[in-house]
Sequence to fold (1420 residues):
Amino acid sequence: MWQATYLFDWAFLLPLLPALSFVIVGLLGPRLKRLEHGGWVAVGFGFATMVIGVWIAVEEMLSSGGYTDQQYTWFSIPGNGTGTFPNGFSLVVGTLVDPISALMLIVVTVVGFLVLLYSIGYMHHDGGLPRYYAELSLFLAAMNGLVLSDNLLEFFLFWELVGVCSYFLIGFYYEKPSAASAAKEAFLVTRVGDILFLLGIFVYFATYATSGSAGGWAANGFPFVQGNQPFLAGAMGGHSTTLTIAGLLILGGAAGKSAQFPLHVWLPDAMEGPTTVSALIHAATMVAAGVYLLAVASLFLGFTPADQLAIVAIGGFTSFFAATMALVNTDIKRVIAYSTISQLGYMVLAVGAGFAMVGLYHLFTHAFFKALLFLAAGSVIHAVGTQDLFKMGGLGKSMRITGFAFLVGGLSLSGIVPFAGFWSKDDLLASVYGTLATHPVYWPFFLMALATVFLTAYYIFRAFFLAFSGPASRDPTLPTAHEASWVMTGPLLALSGLAMGAGLLPFIPAFASLLPGAGIPPHYGLSELALSGISLGLAAGGIGLAYSLWGNGKVYTAAPNSALGPVRALLLRRYYFKDAYDAIGLRGLYGLSRAADFVERYMIDGTVHGLERAFGGLSNRLRHIESGVVLDYAAFLVSGLLFLLLFLLVIAPWLVSTGGI
Amino acid sequence: MFPALSFLLLTLLVGTVLTFLSGRWARWVALGSSMLFLLEVSGLLSGFSWPGVSASGVPQYAYAESYPWISLPWLHISYTVGVDGISLPLLLLTAILQLVTVLYSFDERRQPAAYFGLVLLTCLGCAGVFLALDVLLFFLFWELVLIPMFFLIGYWGGLRRRYAALKFFVYTHVGSIVMLVALLVTAFYSHAPSFDFAGMYVPAQALGVTTQALLFAAMLFGFGIKFPIVPFHTWLPDAHVEAPTGGSVLLAGLLLKLGGYGLIRWGLELLPTGLVHDQPLLYAVAFASIIWGSVIALAQRDLKRLVAYSSINHMGIVLLAIAVDSNLGLLAAVLLMFAHGVVSALLFMVSGSMHHTFGSRDIATVHGITPRTPVLSTMMMVGALASLGLPALISFPAEFSALLATWDRLGYWVLVPLLLLVVTAAFYLWMMQRVLFGPTEGVPETARDLPWPEALAMSMLVALTVLYGILPGLLTNVIIHSPVYGLP
Amino acid sequence: MSDPITTASFLGLSGALLGIGLFGILTRRNFILLLIAIEIAINAAVLNFVYFAAFASTPASGLNGQSAAVVLVGLAATEIAVGLAIVLALNRLRGSINVTEATSLRL
Amino acid sequence: MSPEGLAFLALGAVAVITALAALLVRELVHTIMWIASFFVALSGLYFLLQASFLGVLQLGVYAGAVTILLLFGIMVTRRRIFSREAATGLSLTSLFLALLVIVLLAAVASDLAGASNSTTIHSYAVVDLSSALFGPYGGWLLLLGLVMLSALSGAIYLVREGRE
Fold:
């Protein structure tokens, strides 16, 4: 008989199995030619991970909101009864299975497995496959670890690890300078966020260590749960300024990982990696970790109203800001990447407005339809060998499954009923709308989010029509497209199913227990229905505009001197953010560094060399005292004697008399 | 009780002498001696139990031995050795680095007997510094380290080796003189009954605030040159760049640690009040080192120079961790010294291998080496990632603890080292982008991947990096057995 | 007039002799005169030993002084021998025994 | 005033005058005469202090051997040396230095005035001295012998023929 807690105790397998796969594939991959250079090993481990992950999630649903925590001490200092840590200090790692981590487990393991399977077909012709599968396995391990973290420190640890996996995978085609540069950029920009996050951990830590109950945080690291209760927000009640700062720092970390304004620049460039990587890491899982962090923080740590406003502002603005940049882009993957930023903005907005669970709901559905969009795009790229939308066209006929998948993904993203995206986005907008009465300051950000609905529908269908509609491809040199093998279409179909159905899952009470909080399952009153109507209308309008401009193989070209020209240029230059960051990094920091190097060489070392020369010159002069004449030496001798006598007879008595000694 | 530490030093000495004498078999003798050393230290670790602080408040040491050496009515110098949780990990580091250095340089052709002998002598000196608990004995070993390193740089070094060797010698010697004076003044001024640590412990702590502050500042200068602290650091890049790879490894891995160890053992433990009084100075120096090392590293083209400057940055964090004067900070300081010893050794080996594989360490001319030399590239990647503080690698727990301790004392000032972590990441990532990735350029046709001794040596360091990164408890459980943690 | 044999007078005498010796050492350039000046200075010192030996607190300690004086006399004689050998060598090498001309000690 | 006191004054005056004269006279040969007188005067002082052995030693070694040696040295270098101290003579600085030494030593001496109240002069039999020299001071004597031996060989080395 299976105990409900039985598999929870084995949750540590979730990070461990892919880690094992990492070691096996990394070491033996080059020898496993028949197994797709270890690809099938990774898929096998991925499958096992998915089975365990989903199993645990189902058990969690059935246990209705229980927490299971397993802790292992990482390292500790015993207390000495004094100082800042009188009870000592121990840092733990652990696996915490709670409702939201179970939800994340479904996303990570399912999408992870499907992407691994898809990679067998997609990556088949690439070199360096052992590296690819090893790194992807490591990523899965780290992501599972992150999801299961039971304290902030462990969270940070895996947070960095997924970051470095992302770095490697973005730079997978490292011979391309652009890929190498994009990888570095992604690491550095998220690193800025990581630093803020780390400082946020410190702030929480110190505040709790001084205000929390004895033996609390200081003794146990940084746990999310104390018993089965979210606890910290209450414990930190009296420190609102500090809490605000900590919340903003956490927001900084999340903004780095989830590519929120102003740390959004890296995500579009991260599309230099393989499309599978974009689907898994830069759409479904890792970038969502920032939202997950915010959700966790809002539940266990608590945000002050000022924090909430900042989060809402960042989220709402980012969703609109990123969507505008997607309007004009010609690269199929980058369009989807901007939409990812935009959708993550939605989630952040929801968490900030106080609906963490609604944010996670959207995260859940978004993971599936965005992974689907990326994999469909990957299928297209695999078939035609280009990412330029303006070279494609007419692919709907030759690639029916892919076209269908992209359409499902696009409809879901646009929020057309009854696809997954509709339910979560609608719930999200309705929830935020509900807060406007008490927080009128959220209005502009709500309106931005609403406008984004229109933009989203427009740009994703622009991409859809450009790629799939029309008679034939615009660039005749492209190869004839055809559908790939089942390893690629299988995951597409599976994800299509999820992108259609996942939105309805919270209406099942057992599943809804994974999202315990306001707004789940969605409630449909009069105002919500009206709002749904508005957003559906906006989405339909967007699709219609896209069809009228780009449908049936048309290519819209604006009048040469219209006002759209400069706007288009501004959008294509991404509002000059990347240029500004490059300037800061290259001219600013590097220039400073060169200046410092100059100071080092010519001033610090120059001083030393100057001293050396000064002493050298002095000794050159002094050596002439050594005349070689014996009588001179005798004179020195006598002078010494005289000095001693003078000291004994005159100076010493004088010193004694004045009390100097 | 068996005199384990004296036996250790004796076997080291015998090994060194035999290496000097054994001509073309020197490398095997050196290897055997290094393995024996590591074995002995492992034995010490497994049998380590710290006797704690005595009833009279004087710290005691494991494996302690004490014999009078010079005994005059006014001067008691003894041969006193012993270990606690601070010195034992560093002793382990010495043993590890000696072994990997010998392994790495296994194919040294120029005067191998002298080379390996000097390497062993350097390690003997370092081991002695970590073991010695008497001022004069400490100073003896401290100076002993200087001489073989001088010759290693001066004979086996690069083009500007004479300049570098002399600069190294003059700088560190000035430092040791000031250090010696400070130690002697501490001993005499406090009327300590003897020169050994236990004898000085209580009287030195009873010194007045001003005296302690002045003495601690002097020790900061003396030990700080070894650290090195800005602005007395310029010997380090030159010495590292010109030294042979084995010399760089020992220099970064061990010699810098001597400064940190000395400052904890003889500075912080003897003059705690002085440290507290000098904290503003310490913070200033530490921040300066952190900022300067990191910012300048960004402009370097020579990989060795880059790693050298990043060492200044890391040792600045060590100094900061010592300066905050909390049990967490000291734990972090020792852990970080160990971590930096392993990681910088790895990075200097990578630089050395890069030099003799491609004939250049210039990161502006050698590009895209990964397809040609995958093993070297992997090592470089692990080294760089470990150095920029990636979790699951050895530096992370150390840096995390150090920064947490800093936050605990200094609040938002911790932003300084935190933000510089970004710069550290920047120069390593930039270096990797240029050297490892992109199209292959500047790689001679004859370039081959690592020979086995170098690959083996680096693999050992990588394994350690991962092992202690995942299980830092292996080290921290040893480190906490020291009086500075105020344990019962 | 009191007895002139006092510590002060003997010390004054030997001090004066030492001063004369030093004066000679510093001013004379003839090597032989230099040697003579040195002898005067040494004899001033020996005089001290003998004086304090004579007025020592115990006879045994007086013997110390006389023994030292004997050794000193011997040393002084030795010094003269070596000094004269140097004079001869210098004379042969340089044709002069002017000490200010023998400057090869210089760097 | 006791006869010893008178003798002391006389011998002291002779010693100072002869020492000065030895250094100041022009003729080198006269110098030898003056320095011999100086040695004799000192020998007299030793006898006055009842150190008869030392007195004899002074006469033998200094007034005898050393004087002869010096004379010998002058004779050997005679041809080439200036017979007079031709150079500057008094250097004012040196004179000042020497005088300062004298003054300071005199100051020390006056500090010690009356330090010794003992008027009994110890006199020793030569036997006592010799048993001290060959007893507790045997090591010193041996050392002296070694020094003399090495000085002897050194002197021979210095003056040997064929050395350029």
Remarks:
- Residues 327-358 of chain B form the longest helix (32 residues).
